[in-house]
């Protein structure tokens, strides 16, 4: 299994770089709503991934003790709804489609890291 803590640390670094790009795009291009949407989506997506990492740790401990625990899907769904509700409420500041794209960015990073680890272990 992949080390989710290591991946999360990489994602935080990537998030700061992405947010810097979004701020630059917001200031210097004619598409500020798109960059603001990607930024807010990426923040909520990283928050969702952090919840997943934390819940996986609890799940592992509970499994070893023989207890049952959920993985916090409800909290992640609520966060995703908030990531879309904010751009719907303020369409002059945020783009809805780009916030959904930003929401999926951490999971794309997770997929890329999984492929990288797979090919690295094969060699």
UniProtKB/TrEMBL annotation:
Keywords linked to the UniProt accession: Cell membrane, Membrane, Transmembrane, Transmembrane helix
Membrane topology field: Multi-pass membrane protein
InterPro entries in alphabetical order: ATP_synth_I, ATP_synth_I_Bacilli
TM spans (from-to): 12-28, 34-53, 74-90, 96-119
GO cellular component terms given for this protein: plasma membrane
Intracellular or extracellular location(s): Cell membrane
Protein name: ATP synthase subunit I
Species, as recorded: Ureibacillus terrenus
């Amino acid at each position: 299994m992949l080390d989710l803590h290591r991946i999360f640390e990489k994602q935080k670094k990537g998030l700061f770089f992405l947010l810097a790009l979004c701020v630059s795009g917001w200031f210097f291009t004619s598409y500020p709503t798109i960059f603001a949407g990607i930024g807010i989506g990426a923040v909520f997506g990283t928050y969702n991934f952090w919840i997943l990492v934390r819940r996986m740790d609890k799940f592992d401990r509970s499994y070893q003790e023989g207890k049952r625990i959920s993985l916090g899907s409800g909290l992640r769904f609520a966060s995703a709804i908030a990531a879309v509700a904010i751009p719907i409420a303020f369409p002059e500041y945020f783009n809805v489609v780009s916030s959904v794209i930003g929401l999926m960015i951490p999971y794309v990073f997770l997929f890329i890291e999984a492929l990288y680890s797979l090919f690295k272990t094969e060699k």
